[in-house]
Amino acid sequence: MSGWWPSRYGEGDEAGALNEISAGGIVRAARLVREGRVFDLAHVLDSAVPAFPGRQFAQRLGPAEGGIGRNQVGWVVEQVAAPSQIGTHMDGLNHLRIGDRSYNGSRDFLTPCWPCQHAKNHAQQQKSHTNSD
Q: How many domains in the chain?
């Protein structure tokens, strides 16, 4: 499949739509708010969570322990084992690919989270340009 890169932000882009976020844009968006609303974004993770083949979510609760101090504080140890992209993960730009290419045609999907680092750099640049647009 060809024609899906380079991105509209340029051949070396690693941020994708994060390029659309600016300090001025955030201020303009905040001015549009007319009422406060709360959205619960919690999602229960359990063994039935959708997952790609070979991935699974496992949770183990240990026995009740403790009974320490005057208040007899106790606890249960919880152990969770799962890949980081299971259930409720907004994929980074390089987590999915078509053939041997990830976002913007990159073949560099073994470098740990290169878009994440770029996004962090982009955010720092935006901080230095506060209200520039």
A: 2
